Amino acid sequence: MSDILSVVTLDGPAGVGKTTLARRVADTLGAPYLDTGAMFRCLALKLGPGAERLPGGELRERCAAWTFSLAGSGSGTTLLCNGVPVRGEVRTEEVGMLASRLAAAPEVRDVLKAAQQAIGASTALVAEGRDMGTVVFPHAGFKFFLDATPEVRAMRRLRELEERGERPDLAVLTEQIRKRDAMDRNRAVAPLRPAQDAVIVDTSTLDIQGVLGVILHHISVRGGLPGGR
Asked: What CA–CA distances, in Å, run from 3 to 99, 123, 141, 223?
């Protein structure tokens, strides 16, 4: 792995395809990928509703009881919480809303920031989330900010849930995404925004392969792909 790679960050709002793209980029680079949203969702599920209202010291202590690590690389990367794989139960819309509220607590962000930086210190990494390029890895070699309209993201989410056998309502999904956007962009701590040196990619009219091509091109022209690819 080339040293210039170090960390690739993919930031953006909910439903923009960060996880799928992070896996694809990590596959190409032969690096592990870090799904930081799953870390927040995991804590939200374990701590339960209302955890963001706990006293700061208690909230920090409860979060610190859960440790995170990675196993494998590329799309085969597994996020572990206290040694146990984080599974699909964290992917519900309800847990996503809990995670957005929990993410507004500085104590939670501090604990997870330290965990994320510790993981990134030991390996080249593709990290996706909402503040990877601005807060967690401000010196990352490659930064990308992915965006799309709420309507496009809601339709993508609808298809994803339908593939799981669920029958969600598009209007409800769109409103949930708008509310999460408002929480994420307007929170006092680490609000969702592109890093000044990030490449901004509007994915509204691009499929996954198209966005992947844009990302890999930017990495390649800067010499970041291993083996000269």
From this structure: 33, 10, 9, 10
Task: Answer with the residue of higher pLDDT: 36 or 224.
Answer: 36
- Judged against a pLDDT cut of 70, whether residue 86 lies above it is answered with yes
- Domains by residue range for the chain, with CATH: 7-228 (3.40.50.300)
Which strands sit side by side in the sheet containing 33-35, from one edge to the other?
33-35, 125-129, 7-11, 142-147, 199-202
Name the β-bridge partners of 11: 129, 145
pLDDT score at 2: 38
- Where does 56-197 have alpha helices with state H? 56-64, 93-102, 106-121, 150-163, 170-186
Q: What residue type is 7 in one-letter code?
A: V
In whole angstroms, give the CA distance from residue 112 to residue 34: 12
What DSSP assignment string belongs to 130-160? SSIIIII-TT-SEEEEEE--HHHHHHHHHHH
SS3 breakdown of the chain: % helix, strand, coil, rounded to 5?
A: 55, 15, 30
